[in-house]
Amino acid sequence: MENKRHIPDFFLLDDNSPIIWERRKAEIKELFxxxxxxxxxxxxxxxxxxEEREINFASKARWESVxxxxxxxKGTHTVKTDLILPRGKTSIPVFLSIGFSADVPNKYLPxxxxxxxxxxxxxxxxxxxxxxNNDFSDGLASLFEGDFGKITLxxxxxxxxxxxxxxxxxxxxTRVAIIGHSRLGKTALVASAFDERFFLTCSNDSGCLGASxxxxxxxxxxxxxxxTDVFPFWFSKKFLKYRDNVNSLPLDQHMLLAxxxxxxxxxxxxxxxxxxxxxxxxxxxxxxxxxxELYGKAGLINDMCEPCAPFELTKGTVSFYExxxxxxxxxxxxxxxxxxxxxxxNEA
Length: 348
Ligand code: GCU
Prior knowledge:
Layout: H1 18-37, E1 47-52, E2 61-72, E3 75-86, E4 92-99, H2 111-116, E5 120-125, H3 126-129, H4 150-165, E6 171-181, H5 183-194, E7 200-204, H6 224-230, H7 254-258, E8 264-270, H8 278-294, E9 318-323, H9 331-347
Parallel strand pairs: 4-5, 4-6, 6-7, 7-8, 8-9
Antiparallel strand pairs: 1-2, 2-3, 3-5
Helix pairs in contact: 4-5
Residues 182-183, 207-208, 222, 227, 275 line the site of alpha-D-glucopyranuronic acid.
């Protein structure tokens, strides 16, 4: 796909050596924290309590609520999460789901279907971490000082969940997929960019400041100005200076995807979701693919058509797809993601 939006070359590599790229990656992580999302707070070690639930999906699964209690000299905060694992299995690949609702299942999370496909689910509701508003005295935000946006805190919790999964013998911790929709699709990307333990990243309809490039938006697309008008607290305070000056950003969103290389990445989009700028998301995948090539892998292979056929994910380690319909994390999306996850597992 042609770089019609003239996104500058933020890779800035003298040559294609992976060592130089690793160094540049560290700078890019700094830039994303300094300029856009804010800094990840210090890592706390939570105390963990688990509670077995009676309802267990027709006895096909074990369901435990897992409570993470974080404590420091500023206070304490507990986050409830839910772990649902197919019963009697070992080496279970797991979806870590960052969700809008604390209910399991919920409209975005068809647990039983996921279990039936052989996957476990570890789920937390983002607002149990910290509320989706400007109140930084709420929840986990109250334990830390510094310039971080709420997306960073939700991503911080995802890494904490990964730590916990590493303590579970039934889980294949080398096969954990992180998944989120919309603002939580943005969060899934940030979490995976900063935590290389995620094997697969499924970012659904993430759009502006998620998978889509920030430059070259058209009238129907969400812009930096629009997003910071309503959700300034998702980002670092410093980010506001780019509101009406997108071209001065020292990077663009494809570099966030590039940080996920050489791991597996799926960017899911919905045809009617003009706000999310699907063309900008596809361009992002195209430009980011250079990072996969640095590891000797194909990123996006878009030989089908542009955009690709509905419900088909493009081949390659970076998969893009556009389904029919509007902004939603639908069963159609889940089916596509699970199919791809299985393909990857079978290749290994
Ligand atoms: C708004 C916001 C988007 C976001 C979406 C969501 O539409 O403008 O950036 O992705 O909410 O999270 O549902």
